[in-house]
Amino acid sequence: MNLSIWGATDVGLKRKNNQDSILVNQNMNLYIIADGMGGHKGGEVASALAIETVEKVISEGKSQPIKDLIRKAYSKASGRIFQTANVDRPELRGMGTTMVVAYFHGSVLHIGNVGDSRAYLFKEGQLWQVTEDHSLFNEQIRAGSMSIEEIESTVAKNVITRSVGFEDSVQPDLYQRIVEPGETYLMCSDGLTGQVSDAEILDILANTPEDQVVATCIKRAKEAGGDDNISVIVFKVTD
Asked: Parallel, antiparallel, or unpaired: how do β-strands 173-178 and 108-114 relate?
């Protein structure tokens, strides 16, 4: 199995600093997007700590079952952020981060998720959202408690119901899939999905040269307002 990978993060047009962090570690086949929250510096610190911790835990624990390893990585990251915010640097109290992790073990792709950063699968002209958002908005959608008009106008779209660092431990959603040549995966923060619809993301993946997909996604998000930081990682499975 071979991968072609592209990734970038951008501050967007409205924020003064970038609270997103990304990791593209091809030697480990580990790819992460974390979207931090918690004030001017807190978000930056939380997302960076989360990625640093996950990379370290996975690099040191490859003999463990992969699901257990990813759970441990999320838990350690949450504990480290919680400790930093509540003990070491109380001025950062309340910081946390979303985090979506993609880790290849042989031909099996393992995905972990907490928050509303996402992973998508693009295959044979179709797009599927692999992860599920941990957001108040998504919970209301699933419960059927919102009308179409309320969905369009709700102010709860960015309210997260689960994050890394809010408590000293967190349980991620876990997904796994045996990958096949020709599949493309796109990971992103909500700086993309908050501005660019799934239909537009599908159009970009279907009609843009592979090495330009990341840049095109960021460009489209900026054209739509660029209200948030924008992070995108794309990897394609090849023979």
From this structure: antiparallel
Enter the tokens of residue 202.
């599908």
CA distance linking residue 163 with residue 171, whole number of Å? 9
Could you give the CA distance from residue 67 to residue 61 in angstroms, rounded to a whole number?
11
Pairing of strands 230-238, 2-10: antiparallel
151 φ, ψ (degrees, to nearest 5): -60, -40
CA 221/CA 141 separation, integer angstroms = 24
- Is the per-residue pLDDT at 202 higher than 60? yes
For the chain, which residues make up each domain, given as ranges? Answer: 2-238
Q: Which class would CATH give 2-238?
A: alpha beta
**What are 178's two structure tokens?**
């045996």
pLDDT bucket at 239, cuts 50 / 70 / 90: confident
| DSSP state for residue 195 in the 8-state scheme | T
Q: Rounded to 5 degrees, what angle do the CA atoms 7, 10, 13 make?
A: 155
Q: What is the DSSP letter of 199?
A: H
